[in-house]
Write the structure tokens for this entry.
Amino acid sequence: MKKIIILNGSPRKNWNTYKMCESFAQGVKEAGGEAEIINLYDIDFKGCRSCFACKLKEGKNFGRCSYPDGLTPILDKIAHADGLVVASPIYCSDVTGVTRCFIERLTFPFFEYKEGYPSIAPKKLKTAMIYTMNVPETLSNQMYPDMFDKTEFMIKTVFEKPVRIFAYDTYQFIDYDKYVVEVFDKNKKLKQKEENFPLDLKNAFEEGKNMVNGIINL
Ligand SMILES: Cc1cc2nc3c(=O)[nH]c(=O)nc-3n(C[C@H](O)[C@H](O)[C@H](O)COP(=O)(O)O)c2cc1C
């Protein structure tokens, strides 16, 4: 059975990003695969400490992150999975800090400091990115393409190029009336949530199926 690991880089469980992860996972299962969602905010970890154990000549941890914290066993599990999904809300025009820390820890050990920077990941994983954000699609297309490219650079270098999955213009508060949010029209947001978010979920579901089928048909 093909195993897909999905990392939720949002602190909110059961909100937009998590729901996209769940839909992707359902697609994986529909195609006969196995999916596991891991909430990055539940894990006690930080970014790369620059210890360079992963680059030490003849080091016992060459090519793997051995820093002893909550993320290390998860990194080992991912390295031997068949597919990887990284999901993040956009915070201050970037993925969340926790998501960035995760990408550093996951990818840097597999990036060899040799001519051509070859990948030494045990497997060339299929990958996907899920991005959720407040801005509508048109604004995202103007503002974020470079950020997506930069975020994905190390992932595509050590694994396969990620498929991008989006949920734009997401619903952010349970009750818009309770918060100072003059720039958003709550009725438009509600309409988006009821009409478009289900389509985003459907797209995530289809991409979950596609990932598993893509691995099986290799
Ligand atoms: C600290 C913070 C910063 C944010 N910055 C942005 C931003 O720069 N661009 C954007 O489109 N949305 C931004 N958002 C909105 C979230 O990306 C959006 O609501 C997302 O779907 C939330 O995901 P969640 O429902 O899984 O928590 C921000 C939200 C927070 C809490």
Observations:
- The helical segments are 16-30, 72-79, 97-107, 137-143, 145-158, 186-216.
- The pocket of flavin mononucleotide is lined by residues 10, 12, 15-18, 89-93, 132-135, 170, 172 (CB under 6 Å).
